[in-house]
Design brief:
Number of strands: 12
Radius of gyration: 16 Å
Strand content: over 45%
Oligomer: single chain
Structural class: mainly beta
Strand order of the largest sheet: 7-8-9-10-11-1-2-3-4-5-6-12
C-alpha cells in the first residue's frame, strides 16, 4: 500500500513537468508535506524534499516521520530505507508515456488542472506557473494531498545527485 502510494505520487508529480504552462521547466525542487487521510478522518503527514530533473530523474527525500529516499530513474524505482538498512529495487512493468498522459489533462480554471492516470483523477494547483499542490484518492479511498513550498525551478541539479549506492551493510531486495 505505502509502496503503491509512493510510486503513484512520484510518477504523477514528475509528470507535471510536461503540463503546458510548465513546459519550460527542466528542474524542480521543493519542500513538501504529504497528507494521507482515511474515511475515519485519521491522518498521517510526511515531510521532506523533492528533486526532479528532465522528467526522468526524481528523488523524494522523506524526512519525517521516518527517513526514506525514493529514486525514480526512467523505469527503475529505488527505495532506500536507512532505518531498516535496506534498499528495494524494482522495475516498472510498463513504460509510462508521460507526455501523452499530461497532454490529455484538462485546464479546469485559471490555476487548476485535472489529469487521469491509472483510472484515478488528480487535481493540480498552480500559482505563478509553479506547482503548489497535487491531490487525489488512492485505491483505498484515502485522500492524498501534497503541498509544495520553497519551490525552485530550473536551477541545475547534478545528475550524480540521483545515484544511490547502498552501503555494504544494507540488505538488497529486488522485486
Amino acid at each position: 500500500m505505502v509502496y503503491k502510494l509512493l510510486l503513484l505520487t512520484i510518477i504523477i508529480v514528475s509528470n507535471l513537468l510536461a503540463v503546458d504552462e510548465l513546459k519550460d521547466i527542466k528542474t524542480f525542487q521543493a519542500d513538501f508535506i504529504q497528507t494521507v487521510s482515511n474515511q475515519s478522518n485519521k491522518t498521517i503527514s510526511y515531510e521532506g524534499k523533492v528533486f526532479i530533473k528532465n522528467n526522468d530523474r526524481v528523488l523524494w527525500k522523506y524526512i519525517k516521520p521516518i527517513e526514506k529516499n525514493v529514486f525514480l530513474l526512467n523505469d527503475i524505482v529505488v527505495i532506500d530505507e536507512p532505518e531498516l538498512e535496506q534498499v528495494i529495487y524494482t522495475q516498472l512493468k510498463e513504460e509510462l508515456n508521460i507526455l501523452s498522459i499530461l497532454q490529455e489533462s484538462k485546464k479546469i480554471s485559471k490555476n487548476k488542472y485535472e489529469s487521469f492516470f491509472y483510472n484515478r483523477k488528480y487535481e493540480i494547483l498552480l500559482n505563478n506557473k509553479e506547482i503548489k499542490q497535487v491531490s487525489y484518492k488512492d485505491e483505498l479511498d484515502n485522500t492524498i494531498i501534497i503541498e509544495f513550498t520553497n519551490v525552485v525551478q530550473n536551477e541545475e541539479i547534478p545528475t550524480d545527485f540521483f545515484r544511490f549506492i547502498p552501503p555494504d551493510n544494507y540488505d538488497i531486495i529486488k522485486k
